[in-house]
Amino acid sequence: MTTWIARRPHWLLMMAGVFFLGAGWIVGSARPEQAAAAGRIASPHSGFAAPDFDLERLNGERLRLSDLRGQVVVVNLWATWCPPCRAEMPALQQLYEAHQDEGLVVVAVNATDQDSASAAGAFVAERGLTFPVVLDPQGEASRAYALQAMPSTFVVDRQGVIREVLIGGPVSLATLRSLVAPLLEEAG
Amino acid sequence: MLPVLQVGPLAVQLPGLLLLLGFWLASLLVGRSAGRHGLDGEVLDRLLLLAMVAGVIGARLGFVLHNASAYAEDPRAILSFNLTAFAPVEGAAAAVLAALIYAQRKSLPLWPTLDALAPGAALFAVFVHLSQLASGDGFGAPTNLPWAIEQWGERRHPAQLYALAASLVILLIVLWLEKRQEFPGQLAFSWLALASATRLLLEGFRGDSQYLAGVRQAQLVALMLLMLSLAGLHLLARGRGGGMQPERRRAGQRGPG
Predict the structure, then answer these.
(1) Domain residues for B100?
(2) A23 reaches B (C-beta below 8 A)
(3) How much is the pLDDT for A65?
(4) Where are the alpha helices (DSSP H) in chain A?
(5) Mean pLDDT, rounded, for A67-96
(6) Cβ-Cβ contacts under 8 Å for B256 (sequence gap 6 or more)
(7) In terms of CATH architecture, what is A36-185?
(8) How far apart are the C-alpha atoms of B48 and A36, rounded to whole Å?
(9) Domain-located, residue B217
(10) How many whole angstroms separate alpha carbon A157 and alpha carbon A180?
(11) Chain B: closest CA distance from residue A33 (Å)
């Protein structure tokens, strides 16, 4: 084998062949339109459009995610019985207070199909949470976001595209700020 | 195939657990390979562990430095267990640097060390693709082929399965070649050539590529590494006297490298 590898004309010829084949494949398989296509498909994954939902808030108003287009949205799926969810709520509140003037919204989606509206209401009142909290009694948002563990947090940019997915928690305020800061600077 | 494996609360951890398991099995394999290349398995084990620890610390510090103002107000968050708060490039640089320093201190010979690491790298790649299978990362481009799978809202190439199959074949080739190695560096460069050629080919079926000047960035890097490894194989083989005198050629074939 060594002999064959060391034979210069053979090997150089082979390398040239590999180079041209490789370069040809790079050009032939480029399809750069794919890079932009994902952002139009709704799927709970980084780079895809955030799946829409239209749910009732604790205060009785309706909230549709797509109405928040133009703002950076932190979608947090949670339940009152989940200790890390409860633990990260103060960080979400602080994040909301610090950046709502720059166009940041936190939307906490209570997985009401595994929780209760009254427990959610009591928790929100007790902690003094001021960002919108919506109820999901049929689990539609949970399904749309393929909820597999709570809390799950999706950071959505001003174009409605998911940019970060955080599964599990609690997430620190510093991490949240690091993730939303560049998105807040982007144009709507 | 499932984009996300749902095994209760464990589902979340599955991609990360697979990577840890892969790292552990790879380090066992490296320990076993070390002897073949005249190296101390324990030293290589320590090198890997040190590189991993340095990589994790470097990746977190890199992320914190990029976001210094956020962490200045809440320094405890630097230690928070969160996989998002990592900067991969800084992590890889720290891991390589730590490995280089350790290798230098232990006077590890370059090529035999890289050769001993190659089977471990090939095995770890298998687990990287298993992890992507579980997390849904590294997904394929949309297609209507009969073996397309439904993932992230479209029928796509099962790109993770292509990559998994390729990585298993590469592992088998590397293990086969290890017993037939003829010169130092051959195994390491052969692995790099196989891995980069596969990436060059399979990246073309992926739906999550980063683009640079209208082409897939990973393919440019892969082609560069492929040419580098082919050139490396040639130069090292010549250094061993392959293709020179008939008697030296025979000597080269007898030696384990």
Answers:
(1) 40-108
(2) yes
(3) 97
(4) 2-6, 8-28, 33-37, 83-99, 117-127, 140-144, 173-185
(5) 96
(6) B36, B181
(7) 3-Layer(aba) Sandwich (3.40)
(8) 38
(9) yes
(10) 8
(11) 9
B124 and B167 part of one domain: yes
B200:A25 CB<8 A: yes
Q: Which residues of chain B does A149 touch, with a Cβ-Cβ cutoff of 8 Å?
A: 9, 11-12
Count Cβ atoms within 10 A of the Cβ of residue B246 and give its class: 0-12 exposed, 13-18 middle, 19 or more buried.
exposed
Question: What is the pLDDT at residue B108?
Answer: 96
Nearest residue in A to B206, CA atom:
A34
The answer to whether B200 contacts chain A (CB < 8 Å) is yes
> What mean pLDDT do residues B52-74 have?
92
- Please return the burial class of B42, using the count of CB atoms within 10 Å of its CB with bins 0-12, 13-18 and 19+: exposed
In a domain, B231, yes or no: yes
pLDDT at A50 over 60: yes
pLDDT tens column, B139-190: 999 999 999 999 888 899 999 999 999 999 999 999 999 999 999 999 999 9
- So what's the ipTM on this one? 0.84
Q: Please tell me whether the peptide bond between A170 and the residue prior to it is cis, using omega within 30 degrees of 0.
A: yes
> Any chain B CB within 8 A of the CB of A19?
yes
Handedness of CA A50, A51, A57, A61 (dihedral sign): positive
Contacts of B253 in chain A (CB under 8 A): 2
The DSSP result for A145-181, as a single string, is: TT--SSSEEEEE-TTSBEEEEEESSPPPHHHHHHHHH
B154 at A interface, C-beta within 8 A: yes
